[in-house]
Please model this.
Amino acid sequence: MKVPPELISFLKEENRFFIATHINPEADALGSAIALSMALESLGKETIVYDRDSVPEFYRFLPGYERFRNSTSDLQPSHFNLILLDCNILKRAGIEGMRFNYSAVIDHHKTEKSTTQGSFGDIRWIEPEAAATGLMVFHLIKDLGVPITKEIAINLYAAISIDTGTFRYNNTTAEVLRVGAELIEAGVSPAYISHSLYETWSKERFTLLIMALNTLEIIDGVAITYVAKEMYKKTGANPEDTENFPNFPRMMNDIKVSAFYKEIGNNHWKASLRSKGTMNVAKIAELFGGGGHENAAGFEIKSDLESAKKSLLKALSQGKIDS
Amino acid sequence: MKVPPELISFLKEENRFFIATHINPEADALGSAIALSMALESLGKETIVYDRDSVPEFYRFLPGYERFRNSTSDLQPSHFNLILLDCNILKRAGIEGMRFNYSAVIDHHKTEKSTTQGSFGDIRWIEPEAAATGLMVFHLIKDLGVPITKEIAINLYAAISIDTGTFRYNNTTAEVLRVGAELIEAGVSPAYISHSLYETWSKERFTLLIMALNTLEIIDGVAITYVAKEMYKKTGANPEDTENFPNFPRMMNDIKVSAFYKEIGNNHWKASLRSKGTMNVAKIAELFGGGGHENAAGFEIKSDLESAKKSLLKALSQGKIDS
Model:
């Protein structure tokens, strides 16, 4: 993985950075942004770390998470250089109205085109083959000559963990494990990260999971589960608590796709798709105006749940699930 | 990790090896034995691979698992040199009556003493700090000068995976990840191994899990779940399918102990306890005539379920759960 020299020059020469990442941030977005902020500040730069949404409770073990702010009302974007992380169009970060001095994009997702312009960013470093943006930021920080502190390492390890299922998905390469090894040497406790990521659920969240699993239907190798709005009230859990819910039905051998629906409005659902092997759910999600990776993708749909399920099953059967 | 030179000489000079591992074998025992057998055979040696028990169905994805035999009636042990893997006394392998020419022990468990003699083995290589016996066998094979084939790599990767929770337990070191990286370069697909280890549940087993989770009660930081006999009928699942069920409630932050009850007879239950941190459930299990490790223990109890729960909660409260 080669860091573009112009990105290094940009970060070394400029002094004020606005680091933004996508809405509904997960550990790759959060950890990458915090780590880069820490690295740049150690070089004497000023950084603002922004996400439209607040840091989910269960990611607040990340050292430096309090750097995140979700308001920009007190600052002038044009005084800052943008670093857009883990997404590649402004809209994904909810900052489409803002104009910055100069902009760099660092992302491992495939390029999205905004409607009014072409690809976004004065400097674009997009590596769809990279397992995580955190992996790219690791190389970037090393190329900047900044030592990987324990706090930076924890953020990057969490970032890489969440996007590789802690080294279980097929984006887990030899290089991913070698970077993991370096981060452990920088002070990360793998058991602490895994505990923080996977074993700190609230009782309410666990109850919501059980409720979601009780909705399980299996149709033609597709496992369908959902969380309707009233379930939040019944359990006391929050919408952000559904993170990782789509992965549970994947435990079953005969499941090719796990589809999880989450009610986000009246007749308005967010669908999360998880697949195994070569079944490409990003292509399915794109049919519905969404996107993502080969084995993890999502989209929104405005319809009642039954129709939403039916249209997905139809799309999947036309896509011939035969991984 | 340094392989004893006398072990290398022994393996190079002798020609006939009986590789044995512990009863109720899991992936570290199985994978280490198969990998070592393959390596020795590539050097022109003869090997017998033995376990008293047969290879569990869900480990039959390991290439070469059919090397395992569980009978010794047609061979003369004294014509063979023993390699005892992943345990360090003959009794753990169920071969305490057998006499071999010469013996080597390769294990990462603490030394057990047999009652009639001291530590067993002419050559003893015990590394309690090693995450897995598979890690030791990896270094051994390299020191023997044998190339790590894809088949050897898959066995060793599975061995290391199972004993580190696929890089999640606190025995996951930088070295463990570096060895993982080398094994990936030798041809392992991490996603295939994780899928084989964790994602091959039957629909019936998953349905039983949901049913068990629906029985969840949380009392004083103790999560209690159970599977009653009629649930097997309802789901079509088997008693062996409850493996790993006690671990799910551990996902909750405020849970100190997860207690899972499985009905094994009329008013007869098997309790499995899982704890986090410093809460020692082996001591609790011992009160009921059972045993185990600090964070994973079990016992049987003859009573109705409600009384069984009450007596456990009483024992736990007297033990003062304050990890």
